[in-house]
Design brief:
The protein is α/β, with parallel strands linked by helices and 302 residues long. It has helices spanning 23-39, 62-72, 78-94, 99-113, 118-133, 139-150, 163-173, 202-215, 232-237, 248-257, 267-299; strands at residues 48-52, 154-162, 177-186, 189-195, 223-226, 240-244, 260-262. Strand 2 (154-162), helix 7 and strand 3 form a beta-alpha-beta unit.
Length: 302
């Protein structure tokens, strides 16, 4: 009796084995070389796509959802998220980001992860993505990314969030990789210092240029997607810029420059995600500062 059960499938690339189960597998395996040769899409060596994450690929801010996941695990308190986030909400809604606020975000985040094993953060990113972020991926944006992949192009996420979180999101979505803020690591442990600066604003454009040089991409043949006016430098770096779920200033800028606009929101969805998106940086500044202070207090001798 065949006890293999119903066929199951697992995605694989390169030299990895395709495992489907049952007699269908044997037939597929025998024909695999011919099928792969017939269906293979030649890689486009010059073109690629770059996607912002927050409100472009993901509904709301990735750091907000990460902080929510941390709160459920008692690393930070929900009250801290609300209390410290509110002071940043007015600023995020009414004004552009200022250097001193970005510096505060950087210092707080680094103080929080200092001394953590890298694998601990990676594991948390994986768990929290599966729990809170996976269902909040914009299906329309993901479809755009998949079109680039189907055309043989590589697809990178570009985010101010930690690169560890960016990589998890890219891996879960089947994308090429991610560019993100890099924290210094020594012997598998975070030191509390950054390598470079936050990947934000003009820094995103510079990172894309460096990646293009490394992989010999022709930026005039590349595409970039974002929702934020802060990403105009990155959008201006490539030959094809697309405003996705754009804020009002980016919508005007896209219209002025003749950039394509894609909006996957409805009024209901836009209202639903407005607070998480606006709170993103404030959550991390406040919650991480609080957690770091509590950890220092608990470590002090009585």
């Amino acid at each position: 009796m065949d006890e293999s059960g119903p066929p199951t499938a697992s995605a694989a690339t390169g030299d990895e084995t395709h495992v489907l189960g049952g007699r269908v597998v044997a037939a597929y395996s025998a024909a695999a070389p011919e099928l792969e040769a017939a269906l293979a899409v030649p890689m486009d060596p010059q073109a690629a796509a770059f996607f912002d994450v927050d409100n472009t690929m993901l509904r709301g801010a990735s750091l907000y959802w990460f902080a929510r996941g941390m709160a459920t695990r008692d690393y930070i308190k929900t009250t801290d998220i609300l209390r410290f986030g509110w002071s940043q909400l007015k600023f995020r809604v009414l004004a552009a980001e200022r250097p001193d606020d970005m510096a505060s975000a950087r210092a707080a985040a680094l103080a929080f992860v200092k001394g953590w094993p890298v694998r601990k953060l990676e594991a948390l990113c994986e768990e929290i993505f599966d729990e809170l972020m996976a269902e909040r991926i914009w299906s329309g944006t993901l479809a755009l990314a998949q079109l680039h992949l189907a055309a043989g192009q590589r697809v990178w996420l570009v985010t101010a969030a930690p690169v560890e979180l960016g990589r998890v999101i890219a891996d879960r979505l089947g994308l090429t990789g991610a560019l993100g803020t890099i924290a210094e690591i020594d012997d598998g442990v975070f030191t509390g210092r950054l390598v470079g600066d936050l990947l934000h604003g003009p820094a995103k454009a510079e990172a894309v240029k460096e990646l293009a040089e490394l992989h010999r991409l022709d930026l005039s043949m590349c595409t970039a997607y974002s929702d934020s006016i802060n990403d105009v430098p990155m959008l201006s770096t490539v030959g094809h810029a697309v405003a996705v779920n754009p804020d009002s200033r980016l919508r005007r800028e896209a219209r002025r420059r003749g950039w394509e606009t894609r909006d996957f929101r409805t009024a209901r969805k836009a209202a639903k995600i407005a607070v998480p998106a606006a709170l993103g940086i404030g959550v991390v500044i406040g919650a991480a500062t609080t957690a770091a202070a509590l950890r220092r207090r608990d470590s002090e001798p009585d």
